[in-house]
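User: Sequence in, structure out. Go.
Assistant: Echoing your sequence, followed by the C-alpha cells.
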Amino acid sequence: ITVKSITSHLKGVWHFLSGCMVRAIVGTMGGRLTALQFLRSQGAEAVVAKRELDESAAKVLLGQFGFPLTGTETR
C-alpha cells in the first residue's frame, strides 16, 4: 500500500460523503418547502377560525370560573 493509493482512496471517500451530505441537505430543504407550501395552501382562514375558537373558549372559561386573583391559584 502506497501513500498515493491511500490519498486516492481518501479522495473517493470524501467525494462520496460530500455527495451524501449535499443530497441530505437538498432533500431536507425540499421537504420543508413542500410542508410550507402545504400549510400555506390550507389558508389563513383555518388559523383565524382556530384563534377565534380559542379566544371564545377562554371567554367562556373566564365567565364560568372567573379570573384568578394572583394567577397561581386553581379553581
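User: And one key feature?
Assistant: The radius of gyration is 28 Å.
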